[in-house]
């Protein structure tokens, strides 16, 4: 090879080196998805987060990576799972499940932006400085309003309207929610307002949902409602158990009603997690997570499954059906 040709070849190769190096160094941003539930139970929530990311221009596999971490109801795993995402140097973390998930992420990092999904007032819980300006490295997309008291009271009212002869209300509650005392006080007050006794069955990750429901039946419950992400991750079991017990039940989310549950009264769960994905996308684009206001849900939907009502032998009042946002027949 002539010297001139060799120099030309070498120069051409050298010109390509920076491009190759830049291509190797360019990595897609990673969004961590930290959940206390199971992949099967929380799959719709992960899909909704990805849809929100896509709305902001981030498509999984093309220009963003989404890395889920599942505790599978083993809450002791949450700190190590959060630490793993920090070591992975993710660009943002979306938390899903009880407040324990958000606490684990917050304890693991003060630098990585966190988009938390949770119920209750994040200000009084000490998670953000204010609703309009959360500050720090965390903001919240609320599952309900900042206070769920009005929702709980309305659920009790709806059940009382559907089963007016019931004298005892059953409450299935996820024992892992950190605001249990507040929730118990609110539902106790709502039950007393309608002259109802309250029977409580606390359920943890290893408990038998069917056994808990059976205990409420033994305590004389004529209808039940429930609180906590544990049940959302076990929708099919919960709905089937209520059907076997011929128990009228009102759920937090419409996903239960879609699977055969009687009624739901709550926010649009898919919209909540889609919005969490949108916030994560905005963070990836450079916005400060502490400047993103806490989102409080304003739209509450009431869904009724008329087929399930007939199977339970219930004749639902016409005015109640008229107030439903959707009646599934």
**Low-confidence runs:** 1-25
The best one-word shape is elongated
DSSP strand tally: 12
Radius of gyration: 24 Å
Helix percentage range: 40-55%
Strand content: 15-25%
Overall SS class: alpha/beta
Tell me, rounded to a whole number, the average pLDDT: 89
Helix and strand run: HEHEHEHEEHEHEHEHHEHEHEHHE
CA distance, first residue to last residue: 82 Å
Largest sheet: 7 strands, mixed
Q: With helices defined by DSSP (H or I, 4 residues minimum), what is the helix count?
A: 13
Task: Please give the order of strands in the largest beta sheet.
Answer: 7-6-8-9-10-11-12
Give an account of the 3D structure.
This protein is an alpha/beta fold and 329 residues long. It has helices at 3-25, 39-55, 78-87, 99-108, 149-162, 180-193, 209-218, 229-232, 235-244, 254-258, 269-284, 306-311, 318-323; strands at residues 30-35, 65-70, 92-96, 114-118, 138-142, 168-174, 197-203, 223-227, 249-251, 263-267, 300-305, 326-328. The protein is 44% helix and 19% strand. The strands form two sheets. The chain has a seven-stranded mixed beta sheet with strand order 7-6-8-9-10-11-12, sandwiched between helices. It has a five-stranded parallel beta sheet with strand order 2-1-3-4-5, sandwiched between helices. Helix 10 links the parallel strand 9 and strand 10. It is elongated, with a radius of gyration of 24 Å. The protein starts with a helix and ends with a strand.
Sum up the structure in keywords:
329 residues, alpha/beta, 7-stranded mixed sheet, 13 helices, 44% helix
Topology of helices and strands:
Blueprint (H helix, E strand, L loop, with lengths): L2 H23 L4 E6 L3 H17 L9 E6 L7 H10 L4 E5 L2 H10 L5 E5 L19 E5 L6 H14 L5 E7 L5 H14 L3 E7 L5 H10 L4 E5 L1 H4 L2 H10 L4 E3 L2 H5 L4 E5 L1 H16 L15 E6 H6 L6 H6 L2 E3 L1
